[in-house]
Amino acid sequence: MSKLIDKIWTTILYIISAFVVTLLLILIGYILYKGVGSLSPSFLFGDPKIGEAGGGIGPQLFNSFYMLVISLAISIPLSIGAGIYLAEYAKEGMFLNIVRTSIETMASLPSIVVGLFGFLIFVKMTNWGFTLLSGALAITIINLPGLTRVCENAIRASSKGVKEASLGLGATRFQTIKRVVIPAAIPEIITGVILAAGRIFGEAAALLYTAGMSAPSLDFTANITSKASPFNLMRPAETLAVYIWKVNSEGMIPDATKIANGSSAVLIIMVLLFNVLARLIGKKVYKMYSGS
């Protein structure tokens, strides 16, 4: 009887898993079916044409990647540092309880609330205005709690015996963390980074109030202090997700549906490519550190 019950529940779990995978494939397939026909070099690398048919998503696509790089450059060191502290150095007490409560509270904040906070602090109080840096800091606030917990769990899961062996051989605690703990935790940390990157690509609400909804033509020959320079952190930076929302809500482009479908397809493809590349890179880094 127990074997029969086990088989029934195993079958149910397989059916649920197959349903989730099928639902995901249908969703991705529908978006790609609707949008792939719009993809072309002029669409991917051209500038938008407000009020006219056609146009491209070049500035928005670049802004999404640049926002990804800047946000991760801020989030990853902070998250790994916080994870190391919580897993290796923190002692039970009031301060640790306050830190954990703060992380849990930040993780539950809606992105629109973070966007309004970023608008008040990074846009108004600093007088930066709508800038790429403001958007990157807002995204960092969203991603930091989840990425910190992933790093903490990954570091805790590192073999305790290996850490003790490293310390027993005369390595300092810092050397053990650097040479033993972090390399062992890299695959899980890479997974957390992948999730954070996906959040950056798909986030729109927080960026509406911080990075802005304008994407001027980018001049790669311009001085970095110029607003036209793509690498200037203090310029407005409309991302692809924000652009999809804008073309569907404002109705200023005749073929808005076609552009939104194409942009959605690009967004899905970029997220899939980043996930695959991140996993491949994570495996190579792990092999390099572990010597396997």
TrEMBL record:
InterPro entries: MetI-like, MetI-like_sf, Phosphate_PstA. Pfam families: BPD_transp_1. It is a multi-pass membrane protein. It is found in: Cell membrane. Keywords: Cell membrane, Membrane, Transmembrane, Transmembrane helix, Transport. Its main location: membrane. Residues 61-278 form the ABC transmembrane type-1 domain. The chain crosses the membrane at residues 12-33, 65-86, 98-122, 128-147, 180-201, 259-278. Coiled coil: none annotated. Belongs to the binding-protein-dependent transport system permease family. CysTW subfamily. This is Phosphate transport system permease protein PstA. It comes from Clostridium oceanicum.
